[in-house]
Design brief:
Number of strands: 18
Distance between the termini: 38 Å
Strand order of the largest sheet: 8-9-10-13
CATH topology: L-arginine/glycine Amidinotransferase, Chain A
CATH class: Alpha Beta
Radius of gyration: 19 Å
Order of helices and strands: EHEEEHEEHEHEEHEEEEHEEEHEE
Number of helices: 7
Length: 377
């Protein structure tokens, strides 16, 4: 039986699995072709119909993606979840600051990348791509509404980065991000494209387990960003994690996904590396770590520059219910075996706009409180 939505707004979310009651779901409107920049190199599009194109993505792609996003919104509403949507801005316009110029933005489909909800606080991440410098503006109308409606809600923004040339290592992507051997070697040595010039992190590099936050150090979050999060959340334990064999600038929700208390899903192709002394954290606290099923696809959709491990990028509605992309049959079967009610939905047309189901959402309210799931540190 579902709980009906109400007009009362409560901002509160402590983990990835408690019953979801209110969420932000992105939209595809205004999404643009990505353009390479110091933080990321995009290979030329293999589909000749789109090769060399810039500016807004074709409207037929936007329409197909929005149809799938709207369907997910309907699925969640039928389950009693309140769904809000961001307000697109003119993403095709250039990004111009005193330090750089970039020909266009990306869009506002992946809400998870920008917004990190911890308890009653919604935090705007710095972001590390120049193309995403102004993306937070699409969410400001919603955050202002939440701030006015919920007297306990805290709306904060991390320090805005300059993203000058000093924030990136020159010629890191000398030819192509497909130069896997070289990039893997660098990443395994914890040598990423960003420097430690300033605080940099994406919200989707963090996963929440009550008092413990696991934050990926990688292509989009640097050590200074993790240090800032530790200082900003002094009541939490912030764990730095790395993943081996990972040449892609992808977030933690394609590599390490908590399913419910005591159960973690991990990427078998990207071995988890914890900080010294934390290697046995899951074992000490009785957590089972299960390797994720293989992706159902060997390659992504046209215009999708993200890993096939978006198969792990699903959305938990509660500890027993999960929404998963319908063609990811192996992941769906595994989640069913783990005791979940699996709700399959079409979502692959959304991938080109920034990821899958977890990427597309940002928590506003989940039931529950802040629990300590890892008392044995």
């Amino acid at each position: 039986m579902t709980t009906p939505t109400t007009d009362r707004i409560v901002v509160s979310s402590w983990n990835e699995w408690d019953p979801l009651r209110h969420v932000i779901l992105g939209v595809a409107d205004g999404g643009c072709f990505p353009v390479s920049e110091p933080a990321i190199h995009y290979d030329p599009v293999e589909d000749p119909a789109y090769a060399g194109m810039t500016g807004r993505l074709p409207q037929e792609l936007v329409d197909r993606a929005n149809e799938e996003l709207d369907h997910v919104a309907d699925v969640m509403r039928r389950r009693g979840v309140r769904v809000d949507r961001p307000t697109p801005i003119a993403f095709e316009r250039p990004v111009v600051t005193p330090d750089f110029e970039h020909p266009s933005m990306l869009g506002c489909m992946p809400a998870r990348d920008i917004l990190l909800t911890v308890g009653s606080e919604m935090l705007e991440a710095t972001m590390s791509y120049r193309s995403r410098w102004f993306e937070y503006l699409a969410y400001r109308p919603l955050l202002q509404r939440y701030f006015e409606a919920d007297p306990r809600m805290r709306h904060t923004a991390a320090p805005r980065p300059r993203l000058s040339a000093r924030s990136y290592k020159p010629d890191y992507f000398t030819t192509s991000i497909a130069d896997f051997d070289r990039i893997i070697s660098k990443a395994d040595a914890l040598d990423f494209v960003t420097t430690e010039e300033e605080i940099l992190f994406d919200a989707a590099d963090a996963t929440r387990c009550g008092r413990d936050l696991f934050v990926q150090h990688g292509f989009t979050t640097n050590l200074k960003g993790i240090d800032w999060l530790r200082r900003h959340f002094p009541e939490h334990r912030v764990h730095r994690v790395n993943f081996r064999n990972d040449p892609d600038p992808v977030h933690i929700d394609c590599s390490l996904v908590p399913l419910r208390p005591g159960l973690m899903l991990a990427n078998p192709n990207r071995p988890l590396v914890m900080e010294p002394g934390m290697e046995k954290l899951f074992e000490r606290n009785g957590w089972e770590v299960v390797m994720a099923a293989k992706p159902a696809h060997e390659r992504q959709m046209p215009l999708c520059y993200y890993s096939v491990w978006l198969s792990m990028n699903f959305l938990l509605l509660d500890p027993k219910t999960v929404i998963v992309e319908e063609t990811e049959v192996y992941q769906n079967e595994q989640l069913s075996r783990l005791g979940f009610e699996v709700i399959p939905v079409p979502f692959r047309n959304v991938y080109a706009f920034g990821g899958s189901l977890h990427c597309a959402t940002a928590d506003v309210h989940r039931e529950g409180s802040c629990e300590d799931y890892f008392p044995r540190q």
